[in-house]
Write a structure and sequence with these properties.
The complex is a heterodimer.
Chain A lengths: L33 E5 L5 E6 L3 H20 L2 H17 L1 H12 L3 H21 L3 H5 L1 E3 L5 E9 L2 E5 L7 H12 L3 E5 L6 H12 L7 E4 L3 H10 L5 E3 L11 H8 L5 E3 L15 H5 L2 E9 L3
Parallel strand pairs in A: 5-6, 5-8, 6-7, 8-9
Antiparallel strand pairs in A: 1-2, 3-4, 4-10
Chain B lengths: L5 H4 L17 H12 L6 H10 L5 H11 L6 H13 L1 E4 L7 H12 L13 E5 L3 H8 L5 E6 L9 H13 L4 E5 L2 H5 L3 H16 L7 E5 L8 H13 L4 E3 L11 H18 L4 E3 L7 H15 L11 E3 L2 H14 L12
Parallel strand pairs in B: 1-2, 1-8, 2-3, 3-4, 4-5, 5-6, 6-7
Helix pairs in contact in B: 4-12, 5-13, 5-14, 6-7, 8-10, 11-12, 12-13
């Protein structure tokens, strides 16, 4: 019963134990484990669920179930849904700023900047949903009476390891482009700084994003990355967050992913990039497949 | 069982190695066994009623609790591998759709013959279960493989047809070569208390099964527990079917919800255990419908072992009626073999 401050001496701390986000619900880890999350100065911040490989399996199942619906929604509708998420992010701005400032040890001003950049980035990617096919697709000239069209299609279920250091801007830079084309995601949050990801999952739960489109696991990156890389029902791996994670390298994961030919996106370099600059169409196209159809012209 | 059950008092010591196979008995032996258990030579409606209503009542809360406890056992590693293979060997791979085509039945048979291409150590299901008119197709596709063809008969699933039609339905399936017949009881007659009618129906169908060329066809009697309303009725219907000579008692058609549940199966396992003690005849149990995951199936195996005993852990005495269960079991087998979670891309679509 430690009073939190002198002005509210009678108030007992509300100590938080967060849960996972799987299939639109907030379950505890199947293993029942939790771990302590500290802020940048090493003080207790909250308890987070420590997911196990079985939680990863459940998350993949949820993502697989949600994938046809999300990919089947019109591009315009996906854009609306993602834009709505940005609106909610804006509404929670204060909480994100506090999370980011405490977790990353930033000043209030720099945390504000990071949150603004993250929200702006989400809006930027939301705008791409109904434009990506025009830019990345093509009407191919062929020597015959056919229309020959190439269009980008979502890869399917993507397992994404979120950046370890940049807990919101990096997270959004990794997550948003995957969602644009209709992929569903199993996201492994930053091991030491999971709170913005957890808050984001609360935002997603109250937005119009269908349950299962984004699933957020907190816990040991090495423990979760390996079963996801080996999972035969995962179609692609985003390894941005392997940089700086303990006991795991992207090389091992890429080798595991080869078993069923997962599409793999390696981290950009040996250290985490400056996420301020990491906003590109290429991030969207990294998790698409090109579908080409031949259609006879009327004769 | 309590003293209200006359069954126990008439019995010799319970055998652990299993008893007589019910299909080997003649009609006279069936009648004699029934007479001994019921304690009345004429087996009139009144005598049956007195016997069935004298069976001890089922403690619903206790039964549900027992089933829940049995479902909490943790079965891992080598035990799990054994359990998964046993589940496959006990499966009646089923397709009972209005839209069944010969092609669909043939692909089901192909799956039964080779459930896991690339792994010859994978056991085969015990039987394929189809509608009566598909028996010929299934037999042809199976060739000489040691997999039985089970046919549903007697105006499945409702059983609401005249006696002549129901028996003709059975004759058709048996003559087409079905090794197993899954009949439905007349729930209307059972619920209105006309036990003798249900009894006579089963006897008549059994007669047809016994006349099959070569070996007699095994008779599974579907109680459709989802329509029997109470656990007491399930216990009575189980005993009534066993008295009439059922080789198997089966929970459901799969067309009514709820289908097979763990408590109902536990209850039926108790009934076959007590029937063995009473008559020395070992009857099988087949839960069907609604069992979709390996986890569920393994709970049933635990119940079989704990309630009825090891003698029932045999495809001859315990079966699962299922269609999608096999795929889930195969995925779990792959997971055990490789350590990596598998996905629906690696099993057949059916």
């Amino acid at each position: 019963m430690t009073p939190t401050s002198t002005t509210t001496a009678a108030r007992v701390d509300v100590r938080k134990t967060y849960k996972l986000f799987i299939g639109g619900k907030f379950p505890r880890s199947e293993s029942g484990r939790t771990y302590e999350v500290t802020d940048a100065k090493g003080r207790f911040a909250a308890n987070a669920a420590q997911a196990s490989r079985k939680d990863a399996r459940d998350a993949v199942r949820a993502a697989r179930a949600a994938q046809p619906g999300w990919a089947g929604a019109t591009a315009y509708n996906r854009g609306q849904v993602l834009y709505r998420v940005a609106e909610l992010l804006e509404g929670r701005r204060a909480q994100f700023v506090a999370d980011v400032a405490a977790g990353e040890g930033l000043s209030a001003r720099r945390a504000e900047d990071a949150v603004s950049a993250a929200i702006d980035r989400w809006v930027w990617y939301a705008g791409w949903t109904d434009k990506v096919a025009q830019v990345a697709g093509n009407a191919n000239p062929v020597a015959g009476p056919y229309f020959n069209l190439s269009v980008p299609e979502p890869t399917g279920v993507v397992a994404a390891i979120a950046p370890q250091k940049s807990s919101l801007l990096g997270l959004v830079s990794v997550l948003a482009p995957i969602l644009v084309t209709g992929n569903t995601v199993v996201l492994v949050a930053s091991e030491d700084r999971p709170l913005p990801a957890i808050t984001l999952s609360e935002v997603l739960a109250t937005s119009d994003v269908p349950g299962g489109v984004v699933n957020v696991l907190t816990g040991g990156t090495a423990e979760l990355a390996s079963p996801l890389a080996r999972h035969l029902d995962v179609n692609a791996l985003e390894l941005a967050g392997v940089v700086g994670a303990a006991d795991v390298t992207w090389g091992e994961l890429e080798a595991d992913a080869a078993e069923n030919l997962k599409r793999v996106r390696r981290p950009a370099g040996e250290s985490e990039p400056n996420w301020k600059d990491e906003q590109s169409l290429e991030s969207i196209l990294a998790f698409t497949e090109t579908k080409t159809v031949w259609h006879p012209k009327g004769m | 069982m309590t003293a209200t059950s006359p069954a126990r008092s008439t019995t010799p010591a319970r055998s652990t190695s299993g008893g007589t196979h019910p299909a080997t008995r003649t009609a006279d032996q069936v009648a004699a066994d029934a007479t001994a258990v019921v304690g009345s030579a004429d087996l009139s409606n009144r005598a049956l009623r007195t016997f069935l209503h004298g069976l001890s009542g089922v403690d619903q809360v206790g039964l549900d609790g027992r089933a829940t406890v049995l479902g909490t056992r943790s079965i891992k590693t080598t035990s799990k591998a054994w359990a998964l293979d046993t589940v496959i060997a006990m499966t009646d791979l089923t397709t009972l759709e209005g839209a069944d085509t010969p092609g669909r039945v043939r692909s089901l048979v192909a799956k039964a013959l080779n459930p896991e291409p690339g792994d010859p150590s994978c056991p085969r299901p015990a039987a394929v279960c189809v509608y009566g008119d598909m028996v010929t197709v299934a037999k042809q596709a199976l060739g000489s493989a040691p997999i039985n063809v089970a046919a549903v008969a007697t105006a499945f699933p409702a059983g609401r047809a005249g006696r002549t039609a129901r028996l003709a339905d059975t004759t058709d399936a048996v003559e087409a070569g079905a090794e197993e017949i899954d009949m439905v009881i007349d729930r209307g007659a059972f619920l209105s208390g006309d036990y003798r009618k249900v009894y006579d129906d089963i006897i008549a169908v059994r007669e047809i099964c016994q006349q099959r060329a070569g070996e007699p066809a095994h008779l599974k009697v579907i109680l459709e527990t989802g329509e029997l309303a109470t656990y007491d009725n399930v216990r009575r219907a189980s005993w009534l079917s066993m008295l009439a000579g059922a080789d198997f008692i089966k929970t459901s058609t799969g067309k009514v919800s709820p289908a097979a549940t763990l408590p109902v199966t536990v209850l039926m396992l108790e009934a076959v255990r007590d029937f063995l003690a009473a008559t020395g005849v070992q009857v099988g149990v087949k839960p069907a419908g609604g069992i979709r995951t390996s986890k569920d199936a393994i709970k049933y195996l635990v119940a079989v072992n704990e309630v009825a005993g090891e003698a029932w852990l045999d495809p001859e005495f315990f079966r699962f009626g299922a269609s999608s269960l096999l795929n889930d079991v195969l995925l779990q087998r792959q997971k055990l073999a490789t350590g990596a979670y598998s996905g629906p891309d690696y099993v057949t679509i059916d």
